[in-house]
């Protein structure tokens, strides 16, 4: 579920990528280390280039700083196709992940739908040197959205109903949706539907939402924790075949950094990080247009994780 444009040429991992959430970040900055050894209490956190993931990266950072770690955040690095190899190579040490999508990234045939089953499969399938820490209650799933007018016009309540209009609608989402199971591949395989055309936009971000509002696309990939859904009266199509698995937030860490101190800190976070709290933070960043780092730090204080 949650990522933006795939960026080719990962060999050097020295690309600069432009973010939808602000600015550009490069993996070539000295603090990333390009795999070089770093002090045990130094953590480099990378994030995908959508606002929620950036905010979560700063949540991790603020908490770890309060525990005595020296933390650098590298936001907006790109899609999972970029940040996962960056983690493997040591350019970053840690990133906020979503279990369901991570499993499908590692195994396109992965069928585990709930958090515990996903965690068990991921433990067996993660490459050596990486460790997934216990997941939080917070989830952010893909929901396929249409406007109220489109739902009424075509009688759309479920993804099953898309068969009635196969080949007629325009679908908008991140470029990866062309080849991902949680995208065009799964919608065709599981629900038997295809589209008039696909428009490569962003991962449930401002481009996708603006296109849906204006009618430039008919079906959009939006995330369940998005604070703008109710404000726009968009209709989420039910997913009876569970194409979209659970998507609990979990820290993915280089194993050498996943000591008892860091693991305990993330467990403290899990006790507070619910879907409702995630939606609150997203409202601050996406609707009130506050800075993700400021939102993260204010939230950590509000829930009592830092003083």
Task: Explain this structure.
The chain has 307 residues and is α/β, with parallel strands linked by helices. The chain contains 11 helices and 12 strands. The protein folds into 2 domains: 16-139 and 248-302, Periplasmic binding protein-like II (D-Maltodextrin-Binding Protein, domain 2, 3-Layer(aba) Sandwich); 142-236, Osmoprotection protein (prox), domain 2 (D-Maltodextrin-Binding Protein, domain 2, 3-Layer(aba) Sandwich), CATH 3.40.190.120. 36% of the residues lie in helices and 16% in strands. The strands form 4 sheets. Strands 9-8-10-7-11 form a 5-stranded mixed β-sheet. A 3-stranded antiparallel β-sheet has the order 5-12-6. Strand 3 (42-46), helix 1 (51-66) and strand 4 (70-74) form a beta-alpha-beta unit. The chain is globular.
């Amino acid at each position: 579920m949650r990522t933006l444009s795939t960026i080719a040429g990962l060999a050097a991992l020295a690309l600069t990528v432009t973010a939808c959430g602000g600015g550009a970040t490069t993996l070539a900055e000295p603090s990333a280390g390009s795999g070089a050894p770093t002090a045990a209490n130094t953590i480099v956190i990378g994030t995908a280039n959508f606002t929620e993931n950036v905010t979560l990266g700063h949540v991790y950072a603020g908490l770890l700083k309060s525990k005595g770690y020296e933390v650098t955040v590298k936001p907006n690095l790109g899609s999972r196709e970029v940040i996962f190899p960056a983690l493997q190579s040591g350019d970053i040490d840690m990133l906020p992940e979503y279990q369901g999508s991570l499993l499908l990234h590692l195994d396109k045939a992965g069928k585990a739908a709930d958090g515990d089953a996903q965690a068990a499969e991921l433990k067996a399938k993660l490459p050596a040197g990486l460790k997934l820490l216990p997941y939080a209650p917070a989830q952010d799933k893909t929901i396929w959205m249409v406007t109220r007018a489109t739902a009424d016009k075509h009688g759309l309540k479920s993804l099953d109903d898309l068969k009635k209009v196969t080949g007629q609608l325009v679908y908008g989402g991140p470029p990866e949706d062309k080849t991902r199971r949680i995208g065009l591949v799964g919608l065709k395989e599981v629900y038997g539907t295809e589209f008039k055309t696909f428009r490569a936009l962003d991962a449930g971000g401002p481009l996708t939402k603006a296109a849906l509002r204006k009618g430039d696309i008919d079906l959009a990939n939006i995330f369940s924790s998005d604070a703008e859904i109710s404000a726009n009266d968009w209709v989420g199509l039910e997913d009876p075949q569970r194409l979209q698995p659970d998507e609990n937030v979990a820290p993915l860490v280089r194993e050498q950094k996943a000591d008892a101190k860091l693991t305990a800190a993330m467990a403290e976070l899990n006790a507070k990080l619910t879907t409702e709290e995630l939606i609150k933070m997203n409202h601050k960043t996406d609707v009130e247009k506050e800075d993700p780092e400021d939102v993260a730090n204010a939230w950590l204080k509000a829930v009592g994780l830092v003083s």
